[in-house]
Design goal:
By secondary structure, the protein is α/β, with parallel strands linked by helices. It has a domain of 164 residues: Vaccinia Virus protein VP39 (Rossmann fold, 3-Layer(aba) Sandwich). 34% of the residues lie in helices and 20% in strands. It contains 7 helices and 7 strands; from the N terminus they run αβαβββαβααβααβ. Strands 3-2-1-4-5-7-6 form a 7-stranded mixed sheet, sandwiched between helices. α1 crosses α2 and α6 crosses α7. The two termini are 25 Å apart.
Length: 258
């Protein structure tokens, strides 16, 4: 069975070697940095300073691992795997290791106490088998942290044809909190929590899909001139919707290997 771990930039379709078109100037790049920092803080909340070896499945261009390289204790080993990975700088010592290829056939030198996978699980042909495979590389009690699009997204219900979480055929499995909990449990994990995650991108990309389709534009939605203004307008709307509905376009999960 082939496990498809290629993960393009979130909500986009670019390969790991191409800069996300949204990050073309300092403002989007700054906002992307805030996203990395938010992920780091969620990681800290899940594992604290007890992380000695971390694996990112679907590391893309390595942005998060490079961010962690500036934050994590010096003894923490950092590894990433994807179909396309950045070139390692062999001119200086580094604790960062990038492995290119399929997760099932990759050989890792250590067992990890933490695995992270952001917007990856929905891409996999057999997510249950993949979660079990990940467990083989986790130490007992090791932490699995990730996020996936939420099938219960209010924006899917309002814009069913244009919801960004569909992305057929790139997204092969859809999750809600109930189905995600069942799958993690079946794969041998004890679920610590599954909760809504603030995600303005879910509404903004959905709206851009709708606008592009309605106006019959040929420009990809995330490269249209109106994309960034829609992101800014969506942010407070999504926050308010999260407060009122207690739901969101993405769900975060933390689980431990039994």
């Amino acid at each position: 069975m082939r496990v498809d771990l290629f993960v393009a930039a979130a909500h986009g379709g670019k390969s790991a070697t191409v800069l996300d078109p949204v990050r073309r100037n300092f403002i989007p790049e700054y906002l992307y940095g805030l996203r990395l920092d938010a992920r780091y803080r969620r990681l800290q909340a899940a594992v604290g300073n007890k992380c000695h070896a971390l694996l990112e499945v679907g590391c893309g261009d390595g942005s998060f691992l490079k961010f962690l390289d500036q934050k994590m204790p010096a003894e923490c080993v950092l590894t990433g795997i994807d179909f396309l990975v950045p070139q390692s700088d062999s001119s200086r010592p580094s604790r960062l290791t990038f492995t290119q290829g399929e997760f099932e056939t990759a050989a890792f030198l250590v067992r990890y106490d933490t695995v992270v996978m952001f917007n990856v699980l929905e891409h996999l042909a057999d997510p249950l088998a993949s979660l079990r495979k990940i467990s083989e590389h986790l130490q007992p009690g090791g932490v699995l942290l990730g996020e996936v699009p939420n099938w219960n997204s209010p924006w899917r219900k309002m814009f069913p044809r244009h919801w960004q979480g569909l992305q057929i055929p790139r997204h092969q499995t859809e999750f809600d909190p109930v189905s995600l909990r069942k799958m993690l449990s079946s794969a041998g994990y004890d679920v610590v929590f599954i909760r809504p995650l603030y995600d303005p991108g879910d509404l903004s990309v959905t709206l851009c899909n709708w606008i592009t389709d309605t106006l019959k534009l040929r420009t990809p939605p995330r490269q249209a001139w109106f994309y960034f203004p829609v992101v800014l307008l969506s942010a407070p709307i999504v926050w308010l919707a999260n407060v009122v509905t207690r739901d969101s376009g993405s769900i975060e999960f933390v689980a431990r290997k039994r």
